Amino acid sequence: MRLRKSLAVLVATLATTFTFAQCDDEHEDPPVNWGVLLFPTFEALDVFGPLEALNLLSLTVPLNLSLISRTLDPVSTKPRAMTTPSNFSESILPTHTFSNPPPDLEVLLVPGGLGTRAPDLQAEVGFIRDTYPQLKYLITVCTGAWLAANAGVLDGRNATTNKKAWAGRPVNNTVNWITHARWVVDDNIWTSSGISAGIDATLAFVEEIYGEELATDVANSMEYERHTNATWDPFAELYGLA
Ligand SMILES: *[C@@H]1O[C@H](CO)[C@@H](O)[C@H](O)[C@H]1NC(C)=O
Ligand SMILES: *[C@@H]1O[C@H](CO)[C@@H](O)[C@H](O)[C@H]1NC(C)=O
Ligand SMILES: *[C@@H]1O[C@H](CO)[C@@H](O)[C@H](O)[C@H]1NC(C)=O
Ligand SMILES: *[C@@H]1O[C@H](CO)[C@@H](O)[C@H](O)[C@H]1NC(C)=O
Ligand SMILES: *[C@@H]1O[C@H](CO)[C@@H](O)[C@H](O)[C@H]1NC(C)=O
């Protein structure tokens, strides 16, 4: 039993090493032009967790960032479809629109948030559908995976999403939703679990593209303790998905 387990671990390790070796070859040309899709009531940390890591990365590695939305108006985290006892939100200014997107976009990051429940996200979903074929990578955080699913780009793929919001996800049997995952990689699509998981997925992405040393350096600069195991997921159990 123990031998079988060690063999399984060895095979898994070899598989990982092999994947990394393969990827290293691809990454002689690392992606430079990043975009973040913004919609009303996006989740702040879904955007700023990954961007924090990438801001630090951009100090030593050439990166371009575009913030893409329907219009150039400020996009707010303010809840749209519910009343709250608060005036509590923050806004961010887009740099590009869906109809005038940045040229040569290579990585698109799609955040989640309460705004992904809105019924009028055809423009956002259409932008993901139209842009995906030109991308090197698509990364979703939290319920951003719902938008990618609606765009059809997760058809036949493994993906994950926010565990608390799981029961409310759009029923879409074309996606192999992985219940127990901090993040999931399927070909060039990275989907992460809820909110803070976007930081771990981004750091894992940085590790895959630029190597472990730089990913660790970024995490240490953030004084952030990474989860490096993609299957670490106490929230699947917490929300009854295991
Ligand atoms: C970054 O974006 C600017 C403006 O679009 C462009 O001129 C420049 O070539 C880009 N840098 C890289 C490294 O692609
Ligand atoms: C929120 O701001 C509006 C005006 O913008 C004000 O009428 C309202 O009282 C404020 N609510 C709270 C809870 O402060
Ligand atoms: C499921 O995915 C397809 C794309 O393959 C999309 O057209 C459809 O709207 C999705 N259904 C739901 C309920 O999200
Ligand atoms: C997708 O997930 C299944 C487990 O549900 C796994 O067996 C398979 O290898 C995964 N495929 C990819 C491409 O990661
Ligand atoms: C990753 O996490 C899973 C689930 O928590 C665990 O079973 C597995 O042993 C972990 N793998 C490593 C390499 O630590």
UniProtKB/TrEMBL annotation:
Q: What domain of life?
A: Eukaryota
Domain DJ-1/PfpI, which positions? 36-207
State the Pfam families in the record: DJ-1_PfpI (PF01965)
Which keywords appear in this protein's UniProt record, sorted alphabetically? Signal
Please name the SUPFAM superfamilies in this protein's record: Class I glutamine amidotransferase-like
Q: Where is the signal peptide?
A: 1-23
> What InterPro entries would the database entry show?
Class_I_gatase-like, DJ-1/PfpI, INH-QAR
Q: Which PANTHER family does this one have? A: ARAC-FAMILY TRANSCRIPTIONAL REGULATOR (PTHR43130), THIJ_PFPI FAMILY PROTEIN (AFU_ORTHOLOGUE AFUA_5G14240) (PTHR43130:SF15)
Report the protein name in the record. Answer: DJ-1/PfpI domain-containing protein
